[in-house]
Amino acid sequence: MEYFGFLKELIEQMLPNKLSKLGYIFIFLVFVFIPWTLNGGIFNEDVSLVNEESVPYFQTNTCDYSINSIVRDNFFNDKIEILPNVDSSVQCFGKINGVDIVNEKIKIYIGTNLNVDFLLQSLFFIFLMYLIPKTKTYIFKFPFFFPSLLIIVIVYLHLLGERLFYLPLSDGFDIGLNFQNFIIPSLLLVIFLNFYLINDLIKTRFLNLINFFPFIFLFNGSFNNLNLNFFVLLFSFIGINAIVQNKYNKKISLIYLTFSIIQIYNFEAKNIVFDIDKLKGFVNSSQNYPSLIFWMIIFYLFIIGVVFTINESLEYIDLSLIKLNFLITGALILIFGVFSAINPFVNFYTYYFFGLNKTAMKSLSSTDGNTWRGLASSAEAAGEFFAFTVLFVVLLYFSKKIEISNVEIFLLIINLFGLLRSNNFASTISLIFFIVVYFILKSRLNFGLKVGVLFFGSILLFAVYSLSTFSYERASKALLQNAYKATEIGIELPGDQFSYDAIDNLNFGEILSYPEDSTNISNSLYFLTKRYTYGPDINYVPNSVALVSAISLPINRSEKWGIFIAKYNPDPQSLLFGYGPQQITEYYLGHRTKYNSGLVLPHSSLLDYLIFFGLFGILLIIIYLANSIWKNRNNYFYVCLISFLLINLIKSDSLLYSSSLLLFIFIFNFYKIDTEVHNSK
User: Fold this and answer.
1) Are residue 504 and residue 583 in the same domain, yes or no?
2) CA neighbor of 607 nearest in space, from 572, 656, 644
């Protein structure tokens, strides 16, 4: 304990409250450069330039050169790409551990290590928390030891459950707690050290956390080699304190517990690993009981922790500061995204120290037509963030009369440019739409007329756009067509005189004539095909499957949702109650389709949470949301913000990222903040 006390005092001396800006910059640079030279490394002028001629030399002399030894002569070398080598030993940390030529690019693999990454990245994230200004001290009921001990136990459960995920990342990975195995004890020791350092830190900054939460979109907090996220652990730590202080929603907790018991009872353990890819840190990679229980606990604690932080900080929430931090974050995402795209070293450092789920783009050129994601894991998520930031600033100005400074106008322009580069058409349209909606709601029209104008106007505009672009006949069948294209049909379907089978001819009803177990179609696809073919035929009332299909095509979701239908094969209990929070493995690998490799997500948070919590869970969430919106229907600022998020979440997987979920929770609780009050007209 004396050692930890000394370490804490040392850090506090390094980071006094009034440390100069140059001091912070210096410490930041120390974090970025010094760790990669701790192992030493040879610097040879003859081979310092990495090119095709020197590649064989580096391949032969692995673990000799640190990344910093090649910075000077290769900083502007656009022929190289720097990537982490995730299974390196401690001795090779920060050193060049492999070099390959792939597609005219020289890929340089820098050694990273499970234990070193966890320690180094944790200290960097803690340093970022030190930058948050102090407020009134908040006293938690229990000292850090009890919540920290629980976090340690929970993380050990995670390591136990996702052992197969970690085996390729560390030689001799062993979940046993013994003197021959230092991997697990050292990881758990770092956790204890983290929360020991955070304990006093968070007390003086707890009431200011919400004001600075937008920066989580820049500093994501994911660890390089671990399926964990620093900020998820932080709010889980706070969630434990919320429970021991008896400040949590007991009704929702009871419902969550009921769902969890049913999900555990219905769970089927399998020895498989799901490639989490860009979902690192907030999605389960394995399918066994320890990993299932871990994600049940951590998801619950995270939610409880965020809500508790918001509730306790209400009188300290500064909307002007949050607005500024959103604008700064958006600008920095774009700026660092540009630098990461043009420089391989910056690209590596931003990925590592910002805790990104995925390396930033390596080019300024757009992909997928015209999308550019920069630092973000996806262009769609980036577009949603930029659009929300603009909407938040604009509505805050008109609702709260909070002025926008010249600097903020400049930052706003940068965010608008980021939105343009992301090419997120849906977010852009919804941004414009909800600005218009706000002014309609603010008008002197009576409430019924406002609702009528918005409802029928929206339907009319969408119908005009859809029918002018696609025929209803084509659109109504697109969803099922894409679902069958993604399905590995278990039988050979007969063709007509033109060799076209039932799928080619869009005659889905013919497939129902074959035994269900022989066609290999999912339960959901079989049900929707029956619904489409034999559904109620009521005049002027469209078939429900055809209607959803007609909506999915113009918003470019018929293919992704079709793949979801092809893969989603739940039993009755899983359909009603879900597989459990952050459980994608069974959905993704449980039913064989043509898309069982790579990461093809449902592209809808609604469908994601259908997987997690089933139909009953979705129904309860919708009722809870609808009740909140209805109770606060006169708070037009709140209604527009939450509606904007809900509309975009229908067509994006944003809630699979902890930062987006935190934003949603914040906005959902926004009505608690006194922004504007309206009397019913």
Assistant:
1) yes
2) 656
The pLDDT tens digits for 424-445 are 888 888 888 888 888 888 876 6
Q: Which residues, other chains included, contact 584 with Cβ-Cβ below 8 Å and sequence gap of 6+?
A: 274, 279, 283, 284, 611
Q: Residue 520 domain-assigned?
A: yes
| Edge-to-edge strands, sheet with 80-85 | 80-85, 105-111, 96-102
23 and 58 co-located in one domain: no
- H-type alpha helices, 343-372: 344-353
Q: Are 406 and 324 within 8 A, CB to CB? A: no
* Contact (Cβ atoms closer than 8 angstroms) between residue 309 and residue 303: no
> 40: left (phi > 0), else alpha (psi -120 to 50), else beta?
left
pLDDT tens track for 319-377: 999 999 999 999 999 999 989 888 888 889 999 999 998 888 887 776 655 567 778 88
H/E stretch holding 83: strand 80-85
Residue 586 identity: E
Which tokens hold the place of 400? 């709260």
Identify the pLDDT of residue 233: 93
Longest dimension (CA), the chain: 85
Listed residue (312, 128, 341, 88) closest to 221, CA to CA? 128
Of 111, 141, 170, the domain-final residue: 111
The pLDDT assigned to 540 comes to 55
Question: Measured between alpha carbons, how far is 541 from 251 in angstroms, rounded to an integer?
Answer: 38
Q: 144, 199 in Cβ contact below 8 A?
A: yes
By the 10 Å C-beta count (0-12 exposed, 13-18 middle, 19+ buried), 515 is classed as exposed
Beta bridge partners of 287: 270
Contact 427, 387 (CB under 8 A): yes
The alpha carbons of the chain give a radius of gyration, in whole angstroms, of 26
Task: Identify the domain containing residue 358 by its residue range.
Answer: 319-464+616-672
Nearest to 560 by CA among 614, 606, 626: 606
Residues 449 and 484 in one domain: no
The identity of residue 321, as a single letter, is L
| Whole-angstrom distance, CA of residue 625 vs CA of residue 630 | 9
CA distances from residue 68 to 43, 81, 339 in whole angstroms, order as listed = 9, 14, 18
Kindly state the tokens that stand for 562.
Answer: 């079709």
Q: Whose CA is closest to 345, among 93, 72, 34, 91?
A: 72
**Do 449 and 356 fall into the same domain?**
yes
SS3 state at 175: coil
The pLDDT score that the predictor gives to residue 681 is 35
Query: Letter for the amino acid at 527?
Result: F
Token representation of residue 108: 């340089």
Based on the fold, state whether residues 644 and 503 are members of the same structural domain. Answer: no
Contact 248/308 with Cβ under 8 angstroms?
Answer: yes
- Give every residue of the chain whose pLDDT is below 70, as ranges: 1-33, 37-47, 142-144, 171-172, 177-181, 366-371, 444-473, 495-500, 536-541, 674-681
Return d(Cα 446, Cα 108) in angstroms, integer.
65
Q: Which residues pair with 487 in a beta bridge?
A: 593
What are 359's two structure tokens?
């390396």
DSSP assignment of 238-277: HHHHHHHTT-S-HHHHHHHHHHHHHHHHH---EEEE---G
The total of structural domains in the chain comes to 5
Note the pTM of the prediction, 2 decimals: 0.89
Is residue 561 within 8 A of residue 604, CB to CB? The reply is: yes
Alpha helix (H) ranges present in 37-90?
55-60, 71-74
